[in-house]
Amino acid sequence: MSHDAPRGVVAPNFTPFNDDLTIATDLYIGHALELLDQGCVALAPFGTTGEATSVGVDERIATLAALIAAGADPARLIPGTGLTSIADSARLTRACLGMGCAGAMALPPFYYKNVPEDGLYDYYARLIEAVDYPGFRLYLYHIPQISGVGLPVALVERLFTAFEEVVGIKDSSGDWANTEALLAIDGLVVFPSAESALAKALPLGAPGCITATANLNAPAIAELIAAHDADPAKAAALQPPVTAFRKTAQAHPLIEAQKRVKALMTGEPRWANVRPPLRAFDPAAGAALARELGLVA
């Protein structure tokens, strides 16, 4: 069965922190609303780029509630809710769905490594059972180079076939062969994690991408995806600069470096703050990167 999904660029938006490392809710809301105005069809709060595993369950719930209260449409939010505990993942997921969020994106349980596929299947099966929410839409999250636990294509297909709640996946593996195999699963919504893959992924049915660099380059990525449908020649011309931006950004730690660039762009030093174990990106290197990306003079 096929599922509707946001078509366009989805931003896994930054989580800004005050100097005492509490969440800077004012910056969070302003940036999120700006991304939605800049062409993002949706946000994926508390993904990897949002430093999700450094943010507590109650913090996530409170911040999402503040964002929605500030005017963000919850139907355009697909927050990350995957934790190592089924109980915590289910509580967070239900809270997000109760606020009207479009769905949830869940990592596999990532502490134990080399677990059997049946164990991962059981985790998601029991998570869905524990959430027990009408219309629940679950996006799997595959980022094995960070989580240390991958979701093999065969397992993804098995979950998609078994549970109507499983509608899609974010593939952050960076492995085009893996993305291509996922796109071959009829009806599965597949978001690659890099806009550099769009020229290959969109013709195969990808609705867009969920990409860290949308935090700094959302308008260009949104324009590229829109042009793919309306003007393929224009899309072909737009792809190289979008890819170049991504390659330049990802040559550095994506979270720390982009947050430093955001601080330079806005003149707001709090944007450079990250929670341990991450460390703030070097200011001089950040300034050089911002110039290279064409974001500051």
UniProtKB/TrEMBL annotation:
> Signal peptide span per the entry?
none
Top-level taxon: Bacteria
Active-site residues are 141, 170
| Pfam families assigned | DHDPS
What InterPro entries has UniProt attached to this entry? Answer: Aldolase_TIM, DapA-like, Schiff_base-form_aldolases_AS
SMART domains attached to this UniProt entry: DHDPS (SM01130)
Q: What is this protein called?
A: Dihydrodipicolinate synthase family protein
Would the keyword Oxidoreductase turn up in this protein's UniProt record? no
- Which residues are recorded as binding pyruvate? 49, 210
Q: Which organism is it from?
A: Pikeienuella piscinae
Q: Which GO terms describe its molecular function?
A: 4-hydroxy-tetrahydrodipicolinate synthase activity
* Keyword hit for Lyase: yes
Q: Which SUPFAM superfamilies match?
A: Aldolase (SSF51569)
- What is the similarity comment for this entry? Belongs to the DapA family.
Keywords of the record, alphabetical order, are: Lyase, Schiff base
